[in-house]
Amino acid sequence: MIPAIKSFQGEGAPPYFRLRAALSYCAPLFVNGIALPFFPVWLAGLNFNDHEIGLVIAIPMVVRVLVTPVIAVLADHMTERADVLLWSGALSLLTAISLYWTSDFWPVLAVYGIQGATYAPYVPVVESIAMSGVRRWGFDYGSMRVWGSITFILSTLLGGQLIGMRGGAAVLPVMVAGFILTTLMGLFAPRIGPTRRRNQPISLQSPTGNLRSPQLLITMIGVSIQQSSHAMLYTFASIYWRKLGFSGTEIAILWSIGVTAEVMVFFLSKKLSRRFSAWTLIFFGSSMCILRWVLFPINFGFIGYFVLQCFHSCTYACVHTGVQRRIVASVHEAQESSAQGAYYFYNGMFLGLMTLVSGYLYAWLDLSSYYVMAGIAAFGLGLVIFACGLQARNPAVGGGAHGAS
C-alpha cells in the first residue's frame, strides 16, 4: 500500500476508478504472463542459439530505455494520460501480428525491437494514473496492482497448457489476444485529467523533494540494478526447466507460484506498510534476492524450484512496493509520470544490459552464472543502503523515517 495522508474517495474520483485502474493493470500483465516465460521458447523453436535469444530479449529492453522517459514526460503535459494507452496498445498489436511473417533472426530482432518501443509507455502510464488515485482520493495501491499479478498467473497457466499441447507455436496467438485487450483498455482506463501542477490546490500534503533528489535517483538506480539480476531467470529459466524434463504445465506452475507469492504481498501491503518502512522492504527484498540466486544452481527438483520461486514475493513485490512509496514521498504529482518514466528508464536500461550479457554468461558459465547475478543484486543493495544514508542525513527531503518513507 502506498499511503496517502488523507482519504478523499468519492470526491471527484471517476466512476469505478479502482476497478478500471485494476483492469488497466490486467491487460499488459496478461501479455507479460505469456511473453516473459514463453517467448524465449518460441525463439528456441526457431533454432536461435543462446546468444541470439539473449539479444532478441534484450533489444526491446534497451529500446524502452530511450522511449519511456520521453513519452512519460509528454504524458505529464497531456490533457489525458490514458490516451497514451490506446496508441501504445494498438501499435503493439500491429507488431505482434507482424511476427507471424518473421522467422529469421534479423527480422525478428527488428520487429520485437519496435514492439519494445510501442509497448514501453503502457505500464508506466498505468502506474501514473493509479498513483494519482492514491494521491488525490486515497485509494490503496496494492488493491489495484494485485489484479494485474493475478492476471499474470492465469495467463501463464494458460500459456503452459497451450505450450504443452502445441509447443512454442501457441505463443503468438495468445500475445495477439493480449494486445487486443491492451488496446481496449486504452478506451476503458480512467480519465482523470492532467497531473496537478504545483500551483493548483491539492488535498494531500505535498512532498518536499523532487525528481532530481540524489537519494531518490540513487534509490531507483540501486533497485534497478538489483532487479536486473532477474535477467538470467527471465531469459533462460524456462529453457533450463524444459531440459530438466519439466512439462509445460510444471513450468507454468513455477512461474505462477512466484507471482502468487507476489500477489500475497500486494494483498498484505497495507499491513506491511504500517509495520515496515519503505527502506526495510527494499533491504529485505534485495537480501532475499542474493540468497535466491546463490541457491538457484542447486537442483532440488521441482519442489525446490517451487520454493525458490516463492522468493519472488520478496525479490520483486517487496522491493517494488518500497520504491513506489519512495517515489510518492519524494516527488510532486506534477512529476508523477516523469518519475515513473525515470524508474522504468533505469529498470529497462539495467535489465536490458544484463539480459544481453546473460546470453554470453549462460553460454560460458551455465548455471554458475547465477552467482554473478547474486553479486549484481548485492551491488544494487549497497547503493540503496547508501541512498538511505543520504535521506537520513536530510530527512526533510522525501519524508521522515516513520512516514511515507
Descriptive overview:
The protein is mostly helical and 405 residues long. The chain has a single domain (17-197, 207-393), classed as Growth Hormone, Chain: A (Up-down Bundle). The protein is 75% helix and 0% strand. It is built from 16 helices and no strands. The chain has helices at residues 17-45, 50-76, 82-98, 105-119, 122-137, 141-166, 171-188, 214-228, 231-243, 248-267, 269-275, 278-295, 301-310, 312-330, 336-365, 369-393. Helix 1 runs antiparallel to helix 5 (122-137), helix 8 (214-228) packs parallel to helix 15 and helix 9 crosses helix 15 (336-365). It is globular. The two termini are 12 Å apart.
Secondary structure layout plus pairing:
Layout (H helix, E strand, L loop, with lengths): L16 H29 L4 H27 L5 H17 L6 H15 L2 H16 L3 H26 L4 H18 L25 H15 L2 H13 L4 H20 L1 H7 L2 H18 L5 H10 L1 H19 L5 H30 L3 H25 L12
Helix pairs in contact: 1-5, 1-6, 1-7, 1-9, 2-4, 2-15, 3-4, 3-5, 3-7, 5-15, 6-10, 8-14, 8-15, 8-16, 9-15, 10-13, 10-14, 12-14, 12-16
Give the key terms:
disordered N terminus; single chain; Growth Hormone, Chain: A; 16 helices; 0% strand; globular; 405 residues; mainly alpha
CATH class: Mainly Alpha
H and E string? HHHHHHHHHHHHHHHH
Q: How many helices in DSSP terms? A: 16
Question: How many structural units, i.e. domains?
Answer: 1
Q: Into which percent range does the helicity of residues fall?
A: over 70%
Shape: globular
**What's the CATH topology name?**
Growth Hormone, Chain: A
- Largest sheet, strands/sense/barrel: none
Which segments are poorly predicted (pLDDT under 50) over 5 or more consecutive residues? 1-10, 197-208, 400-404
User: Considering the protein shown, what is the CATH homologous superfamily?
Assistant: MFS general substrate transporter like domains
Structural category is mainly alpha
